[in-house]
Design goal:
The protein starts with 9 loop residues before the first strand and ends with a helix. The strands form two sheets. The protein has a four-stranded parallel beta sheet, sandwiched between helices. It has a four-stranded parallel beta sheet with strand order 6-5-7-8, sandwiched between helices. Helix content is 48%, strand content 15%. The radius of gyration is 20 Å and the shape is globular. With 334 residues, the protein is of the alpha/beta class.
Length: 334
């Protein structure tokens, strides 16, 4: 593509975000932005400001920074490093398919690279049509809608908008379910596991129960993904279980909880389990530290035997192919 030729369209991948460094100050900055979003925590702003700045941001960053230090890589945050791989992989796949370069951009809802960073890049490229792909397979107002809010906010001062299309979710997209199933089968094969003797735990990030009562479809989407994956793997009802992780605060979140399930399975002297996190498109703190670290300990210390974490789809070829299918499906006519 020549430098003065405008691309037919561009793709924007969006994920949650990450601190710039595994330090208390960087984590504090990140959490201050993330937890202040009313999509994430919908408590009345004056009360929440006091809680956030008077308690949470005084004590939580140091503990969270230590957790980030456990998973940090030479390339930085796992989430950001993997997201960059996904961006490059999808761009190459689209060029191979379409015979011309389609810009694939990357932004985070919180932190860097920001929507404004991407906006400047789009203006340089002359992008007139933009497909937004939030990397959340299941829609939630606390994640997907927050990404849309952030994008809209970044465009407030922009006098010239590109034409926008926005992918809401892909919870049961056949290519997504096939990619998940392939990752499970390959993990079982590599570990020499017998499917009939292994219990598959599908752990999704939780949200407060009242979000569902207000109409958030996230719980329904998670159940649909889990059912589709179990069907693809030909699992019987007693061979898999859906759970929810990462709860925060004291109010009831979606259940059953992953950590309590791990303790119960361990106490039952379960011989073998595999844990997959289908709602995470890239490995991050919540999968690498919380699941493979913390929840593995809960299970094993309670008496459980074999524990395997199945990595997120990350930049697997099947994942890139799925993303390409989504792009081709949602850019028809462009």
């Amino acid at each position: 593509m020549s430098s003065n030729k405008k691309p037919p369209f561009a793709v924007l991948l969006v994920n949650l975000g990450t601190p710039d460094a595994p330090t208390p100050s960087a984590v504090k900055k990140y959490l201050a932005e993330f937890l202040w979003d009313s999509r994430v925590v919908d408590v009345a702003r004056p009360l929440w400001w006091l809680i956030l700045h008077g308690i949470i941001l005084r004590f939580r960053p140091s503990r969270v920074a230590k957790n980030y230090q456990l998973v940090w890589t030479d390339e930085g945050s796992p989430l950001l490093a993997i997201s960059k791989q996904q961006r490059a992989g999808l761009e190459a796949k689209l060029e191979e398919t379409l015979g011309e370069k389609i810009p694939v951009l990357l932004a985070m809802t919180y932190g860097s690279p920001s929507m404004e960073d991407v906006g400047r890049e789009m203006r340089k490229l002359g992008v007139e049509k933009l497909l937004v792909l939030p990397m959340y397979p299941q829609f939630s107002s606390s994640t997907t809608a927050a990404a849309f809010d952030r994008l809209a906010a970044s465009l407030k001062k922009c006098p010239h908008w590109p034409e926008l299309r926005f992918i809401r979710d892909y919870a049961t997209h056949p290519a997504y379910i096939r990619a998940l199933a392939q990752s499970v089968r390959q993990s079982w094969q590599a570990k020499g596991k017998n499917q009939s003797n292994d219990k598959l735990i599908m752990s999704f990030h939780g949200i407060p129960q009242r979000y569902t009562k207000k109409g958030d479809p996230y719980e329904r989407h998670c159940n649909a993904t889990a059912d589709a994956l179990a069907k693809e793997l030909d699992l019987q009802e007693d061979q898999w279980k859906l759970t929810f992780q990462s709860r925060f605060g004291r109010e009831p979140w979606l259940q059953p909880y992953t950590d309590e399930t791990m303790k119960a399975l361990g106490a039952a002297k379960t011989e073998s389990i595999s844990v997959i996190c289908p709602g995470f498109s890239a490995d991050c703190l919540e999968t690498l530290e919380e699941i493979e670290g913390e929840n593995r300990e809960y299970y094993e210390e309670a008496g459980g035997k074999d524990f395997s974490y199945i990595a997120a789809l990350n930049s697997r070829p099947e994942h890139i192919e799925m993303m390409q299918e989504l792009v081709m499906q949602h850019t028809q006519g462009w």
